[in-house]
Amino acid sequence: MTTALESYVAGRWVAGDDGVPVADAVTGEHVVTVSSSGLDLVAGLGHAWRAGGPALRGLTFRERAGMLTALATQLREHRPHYYALSHRTGATTADAKVDVDGGIAVLSAYAALGADLPDDTVLTVDAPQRLSRGTGFAGQHLATPRLGVAVQINAYNFPVWGMLEKLAPALLAGVASIVKPATPTAYVTERVVRDIVASGLLPDGALQLVCGSITNLLDHLGPQDSIAFTGSATTAARLRAAPVVVREAVRFTAEADSLNCSILGPDAAPGTAEFDLYVEQLVVEMTVKAGQKCTAIRRAIVPQKHLDAVLDAVSGRLAQVVVGHPASAQVQMGALAGLEQRDDVRSAITALTRGARIVSGDPDKVDPVDADAERGAFLGPVLLHASDPDAAEPHDVEAFGPVSTVMGYRSVAHAGELAARGRGSLAASVVTADDNTARDLVRTLAPWHGRVLVLDTRCAAESTGHGAPLPGLLHGGPGRAGGGAELGGLHAVDHHLQRTAVQGSPAMLAAIQSSPAMLAAIRGTS
Ligand code: NAP
User: Ligand 1: which of 214, 294, 336 to mutate, most ligand atoms within 8 Å of CB?
Assistant: First the structure.
């Protein structure tokens, strides 16, 4: 593939001018160029407003759920192609499965949720409440699909899951989407969108794709539109404060970087099953997707008395991790998404060493299997130890790669304070067999985290792990994590609906759901 990557705008596949070259993360070979320059993105916006949105709103929630089921079935058939393409982004097949199968699983989960929603285009959120002394006046909340477009801006680490986890709730809600993948891995997203479009399962205008900059389009958003962003805190802050977002009250949600932590309980001494679970989980989180996961464990917070044992055990395991070409059978960890990303991770490790020292791994030296260490974006796992757990760097600096910092805590209360130093994270885990420790820590961690996993031998065999966001559970976190909330079952669908309190007679409220005029208004065809 040496062509300019195409976008799908206003029903046409078109390439922009003067694209940015994207290299294969493993071989350094040219893959595609990416640009949206010269594309009529405003026409795409109009197409979503005037064609995609009305067509989706014309379907009931259950019909849209059926569409998601069919889409999941279609995409499942193409998985081998997606895995092969994902290798070029540095992902092993196991990594690609997290991305591809995980994304398709989100589609299926939202299809299942939608199957339980009414066969209608409007949702009644609650039962009518009496608003007067008599029985003649009541109020009730309705939820109707917003009339605008859902702009979905994604990070480079999960080109498939990142798209589908935002797309599924929007489609179920009846809102058209414009997807903007991150440039380094946009060619994987493009392949999936091409298959979705070719399937003919979605109405025209329900899904568009912009590869390259989307800035020109954002300036034209209106009050019914929304932006869902995943990426760095810096870009999130810029978009949140964009004049159009502020002026038009564009609904905005962000998932940003996050210094997730995992806490080892004081009871989990070396030799216990929980100690082993902790070590295993940390190694997995550092190495899956080469640590390029927004939920990966960046801070390992352990009892001071067990610190050396943790460092030894984790270092020992990391030394055995085979790094190399993601398609090679014996390889456990592939490459980062590109040389630029590797430079960023190395710089972040340098910054971390101002408050911690490297105990395992060398950021400048790796010997990848079946690959060239310099042409490919390889970086071995790097474990650091912060002898002063209260130093600033481990709580401030995100190295978006196979990097984690271990620190000792003095008491459970101190562990909670250290966790809060991340200023808001997507996920935390507590590994303990002591329910009292779990209770204290969960209560302390909750205000600063979107999700908390408590891991012990009772749930370990069935646990989905620290790093896995799940369709039915909230994905998002306060503060540094962006303040957003995605997934969480119907919560994410609600993001695309407008709630309206309707007041009047109970008879009118009963009639409203089947009123042809109301349905026409909702469908935007009145
Ligand atoms: P980034 O530079 O902020 O880019 C993220 C997305 O925003 C990309 O699609 C990018 O497009 C786009 N973008 C950049 N500037 C923009 C602008 N002015 N207007 C509109 N869109 C703009 O982040 P990244 O370096 O690609 O991603 C890595 C970061 O994402 C890490 O810090 C990681 O923690 C975070 N992340 C968070 C989550 C989460 O769920 N919380 C998940 C994954 C990653 P281009 O690529 O074309 O520039």
Answer: 294
